[in-house]
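Give me the fold.
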Amino acid sequence: MKRCSMYLDPKNLFVSTSASTVGVMPSESGSLKKWVKANHLKGASAHATLHPDDYQLFLLDRPKVAEKEMVSALRWQIRSWISFPVKETAIQYFAVPTEERRAPKIYVCVANLEKIKQWNNQCQEADLKLTQLNIVELALSQLLNPFTLPSNYCGILFQKEKELELLVLHQNQLVFIRKFSTSLSSPEEVTKALQESFLYCQSQKKELTIKLFLHSSLNPFLPFLREKHPEFSTEIFLKGTPTEVFSIEQLISISAWINQDRSHAEH
């Protein structure tokens, strides 16, 4: 079956046809349709990752309700935190591993249904079938899975527009997300924020080691982190591979492709 993966950036679409090929085009249906025709992908299934502007992510205590009542309970809880009518939301959630003595936590993703419909219509106009939607945090986590071990916390630090973002996984599960303002311009400030983040993670399981990856755009921080915090075991993500120099947007698109590969392998 023909397929592709996309990162739905408001300005540019990043479209992958393999784990190493990314096309970039303006975010207009005409551009996408031309690309689909040129690549003989008419009727292909598309796995897309939403831009953070199109959703909000909340870390919440898990409501004490039955599973079938969860979405309704979450809609009630987040109704005053979003900028669009609660009836027009698409809600997904996933558990965060916590110790038994702590209250169960979940990450809740809330997206505007109208925006999803717009992207779906754009795909249909380009002769693509939008079959799955993801979010940036989970898409990038797919790339970290091979490096997660029972004995470590595995993190990636990257820059997205005006923010630095840290994702931390343990045993292939996303356990921690933190965003830093890019006003933290010095290595010292960034390192302090990282140290605070990993201290929080290790308060859950102190015996775990830390493996930290930096996106290649943050290479200037590498010598300082290695010198001041060798316990972080820091390196550039995908160092020595052709994709090392890819932008974070390109990596998001590729990670969606890898996720597609795994889904097809499982079926």
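The first helix runs from residue 29 to 38.
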